[in-house]
Design a protein that fits this description.
Order of helices and strands: HHHHHEHEEEEEEEHEEHHHH
Number of domains: 3
CATH topology of the largest domain: Butyryl-CoA Dehydrogenase, subunit A, domain 3
CATH architecture of the largest domain: Up-down Bundle
Strand content: 15-25%
Number of helices: 11
Length: 375
């Protein structure tokens, strides 16, 4: 069992109180079939900001709290035990931290202040798990800036985003080093969006760029640096997905145990049945194993070690583990676990998607992990 420091435990306790006070009532409303608005979620965001949980992924020099990766993942794990987690604000993409002058005022300051939000457009309709090799969206330099043409898909966060950071090929003769990052404001007449409904009621978007014009300041981090910048964000995101999966699996496990103790069948509580005991024990063991690995990997990252291998491995292992734990919890609950009046059914959908986004399990296994081991 992983033992956190006193400071990390204090952060976990803080997040638990915020989630219990502000988010769990929203979960109850969601399970009753209500549609939650952005305004409904604002009290939790405001309370988190007042408690100092703001700009969590930003370095201290950008006004962040200077948290370690271990601390940030502990916050994420605790936050995602709720079906309606807090949307901590004030974050920006790592490639924007070095911006200066007008670029900083346009593409960094509003995000740090929480006045604007962003989303990333990387994957293409024919791309999937090979983003660098499959990027066909291209940007041509003009006297006034850049003109973008192409398409992106599976874009999450577009609905609430003010700006889309787009990966586009600016040099067709180069591989990853020919890809740049350009910022496109929502409402640009050259960018068209189509909603794509997903499992569990989620929505993603497909974006089409037709002679989409942006000015010279829209180029983030210099020409040819876009893919590297996106990968910086992606590695951290893989750790984050793993922590989310742990939080979901922990809550599903707790629900399974509670139901097994109180549900009576065939003359006694389910907790007395060997099949149920086996599912509970297997889930507990898997949770502890994955938690140990996650925070060990995060600790290596905090020491400045290269953890791309760990990020890929943990994203793969934790999402697969969460699937199994949720499945067992549903089995123990029976029909009650299959209704969308229970968070288990929602998580069953969500975690099926989690095995794909930020890189499918198979890509991580055979491209990220195998490549690192056999290099």
């Amino acid at each position: 069992m992983y033992i956190h420091t006193e400071q990390t435990r204090a952060l976990i306790d803080l997040v638990r109180r915020l989630v219990d006070d502000h988010q769990m009532p929203l979960e109850t409303r969601l399970l009753r079939g209500e549609t939650l608005t952005r305004a409904d979620k604002q009290p939790g965001v405001a309370a988190a900001r007042a408690a100092g949980l703001w700009r969590l992924n930003c370095p201290a020099e950008q006004g962040g709290p200077g948290l370690s990766l271990v601390e940030r993942l502990a916050i994420t794990e605790e936050n995602f035990r709720c079906l309606v987690p807090i949307r901590f604000g004030g974050d920006a993409l790592p490639p924007t931290f070095a911006l200066q002058g007008e670029q900083k005022r346009r593409y960094l300051d509003p995000f740090l202040a929480g006045e604007q939000t962003l989303c990333m457009a990387q994957t293409e309709p024919g791309g999937g798990g090979d983003p660098a090799g499959a990027i066909l969206t291209h940007a041509r330099e003009t006297a006034r800036g850049w003109v973008i043409n192409g398409a992106k898909i599976w874009i999450s966060g577009y609905e609430e985003a003010d700006t889309v950071f787009v990966l586009a090929r600016t040099d067709k003769h180069k591989g990853a080093s020919g890809i740049s990052m350009l910022a496109v404001a929502k409402g640009n007449p050259g960018m068209h969006a189509r909603e794509v409904p997903m499992l569990g009621g989620f929505k993603t978007h497909q974006l089409t760029f037709s002679d989409c014009e942006v000015d010279a300041l829209a180029l983030i981090g210099g020409e040819g640096t876009g893919f590297k910048g996106a990968q910086q964000a992606l590695s951290a995101a893989r750790f984050d997905v793993a922590a989310r999966a742990l939080g979901v699996a922990q809550r599903a496990y707790e629900m399974m145990v509670a139901h097994a103790k109180q549900r009576v069948a065939f003359g006694g509580p389910l907790a007395e049945k060997q099949a149920v005991q086996s599912m509970v024990v297997d889930s507990w063991i898997e949770l502890q194993q994955n938690r140990l690995m996650l925070y060990h990997g995060a600790g290596k990252n905090d020491r400045g070690e290269d953890t791309r291998l760990e990020a890929g491995m943990l994203k793969m292992l934790c999402t697969e583990m969460a699937d199994r734990v949720i499945d067992r919890a549903i089995q123990v609950h029976g029909a009650a676990g299959c209704t969308y009046e229970s968070p288990l059914a929602h998580w069953y959908d969500h975690q099926r998607m989690a095995r794909i986004y930020e890189g499918p399990t198979d890509v991580h296994k055979y491209r990220v992990v195998a490549r690192a081991l056999l290099a």
